């Protein structure tokens, strides 16, 4: 079994730097587009055989060292009772966003084995089909990022509704976050029980908060999720039982001192900070993941190689480094350039 990714997460010695790409299954792959012509995105997520098939596409096409479950961070919000649509132009849309007490009271804390069983079934199929080729990462949105979609009703520029709720009615916000954090903890524990070998929490939008607000309105709920999962794993420190938790925060550079107090194993870093500086500020308790600008994949092949080499060099003092982009790969990315990046990491990331 190729467990180099899991070893790097735990900070154990590795023969080379492992690599995977956030949003590695998606529209930049022709094989993905072929399937998407036949089925819409939500149907794809809810059909375990198809979701497993697109999860595996980038493993074969790119040769990455980990697979990530094909799903979306908003799937559990739908299971909480919110009506979710994906529009080609606007992305995800919740027709009835959360703005008051009554809408929070109506939200369910779903039993994953019931309303999210299609995700667990996808994981079971994947573990059997991957049969140890590469480890499988399960994931969820982190509480703050998931809540922003539920409150805004979709993607947002300035997160006005979320911040208004935080500042004008913090008790209301906190009661929503209570339910969201409970949902995510149960959901991730169920993913681990179904066979997920690592977990990533996506906090894409937490970087829009000031450090002070992040400390009060986002961090405690991430901690609750991470500690909740770790307390349910029999022996989190023993190698076989250890399911590493990766915590990714978009625009994390103003928040690293806060992030440091969470109990994740790996911190995902975007590209707006040099990775060596992030490593220095985080200290030695974490491995790091990232941090190539997704747009660097529009450079020529030799320039991609140069960027990869430089990034590997900057990360040399990390406890462990998992090479990745600093955010999801863009749909317009040439597939050949993603392959070139993976090859360069494997070539220049070899340890003596
Ligand atoms: O990484 C992977 O390959 C696994 C699959 C995955 C998807 N979304 C599939 C997807 C993962 C891990 C996500 C996470 C996700 N979803 C995040 C956090 C990571 C990030 O990129 O910030 C967020 C914020 C979402 C919410 C979301 N889903 C948006 C805003 C959109 C629309 C924008 C877009 O990229 O189209 C989606 C749709 C989505 N999720 C697609 C895919 C492959 C595109 C859907 C399509 O096929 O048309």
Question: Can you describe what's shown?
Answer:
The structure is a single chain. With 352 residues, the protein is of the alpha/beta class. It has one domain (4-348): TIM Barrel. It is 49% helix and 12% strand. It has 17 helices and nine strands. The protein has a seven-stranded parallel β-sheet with strand order 1-4-5-6-7-8-9, with helices on both faces. The mean pLDDT is 97. The chain binds coproporphyrinogen III (CP3). Residues 22-27, 36, 41, 68, 70, 72-74, 86, 91-92, 139, 155, 202, 204, 327-328 line the site of coproporphyrinogen III.
Bound heterogens, unique? coproporphyrinogen III
Beta strand %: 5-15%
How many distinct domains? 1
- Which sequence of SSEs, written as H and E, runs from N to C? HHHHEHEEHHHEHHHEHHEHEHEHEH
- What's the N-to-C terminus distance? 22 Å
Query: Taking all residues together, what is the mean pLDDT?
Result: 97
Indicate the multimeric state: single chain
CATH topology: TIM Barrel
Level of helix content?
40-55%
Structural class per helix/strand content?
alpha/beta
Number of discrete helical segments: 17
Count of strand segments: 9
Task: Report the C-alpha radius of gyration, rounded.
Answer: 19 Å
């Amino acid at each position: 079994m190729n467990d180099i990714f899991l070893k790097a997460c735990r900070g154990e010695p590795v023969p080379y730097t492992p690599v995977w790409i956030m949003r590695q299954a998606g529209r930049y792959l022709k094989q993905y587009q072929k399937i998407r012509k036949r089925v819409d995105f939500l149907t794809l997520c809810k059909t375990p055989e198809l979701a497993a098939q697109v999860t595996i596409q980038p493993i074969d096409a790119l040769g990455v060292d980990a697979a990530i479950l094909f799903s979306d961070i908003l799937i559990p919000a739908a299971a909480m009772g919110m009506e979710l649509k994906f529009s080609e132009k606007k992305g995800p849309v919740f027709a009835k966003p959360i703005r008051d007490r009554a809408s929070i009271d109506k939200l369910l804390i779903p039993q994953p084995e019931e309303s999210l069983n299609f995700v667990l079934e996808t994981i079971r199929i994947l573990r059997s089909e991957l049969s140890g080729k590469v480890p499988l990462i399960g994931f969820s949105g982190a509480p703050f990022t998931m809540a922003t979609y539920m409150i805004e009703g979709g993607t947002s520029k300035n997160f006005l509704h979320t911040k208004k709720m935080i500042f004008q009615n913090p008790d209301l916000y906190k009661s929503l976050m209570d339910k969201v954090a409970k949902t995510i903890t149960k959901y991730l524990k169920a993913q681990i029980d179904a066979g997920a070998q690592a977990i990533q929490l996506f906090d894409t939008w937490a970087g829009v908060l000031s450090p002070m607000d992040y400390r009060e309105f986002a961090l405690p709920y991430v901690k609750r999720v991470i500690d909740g999962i770790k307390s349910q794993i029999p022996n989190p420190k023993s190698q076989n039982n250890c399911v590493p938790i990766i915590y990714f925060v978009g625009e994390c550079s103003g928040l690293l001192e806060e992030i440091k107090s969470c109990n994740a194993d790996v911190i995902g870093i975007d590209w707006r900070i040099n990775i060596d500086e992030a490593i220095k500020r985080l200290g030695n308790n974490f491995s790091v993941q990232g941090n190539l600008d997704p747009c660097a994949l529009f450079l020529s092949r030799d320039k991609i190689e140069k960027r990869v080499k430089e990034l590997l060099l900057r990360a040399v003092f990390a406890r462990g480094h998992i090479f990745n982009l600093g955010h999801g790969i863009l749909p317009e990315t040439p597939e050949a350039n993603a392959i070139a990046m993976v090859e360069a990491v494997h070539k220049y990331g070899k340890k003596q």
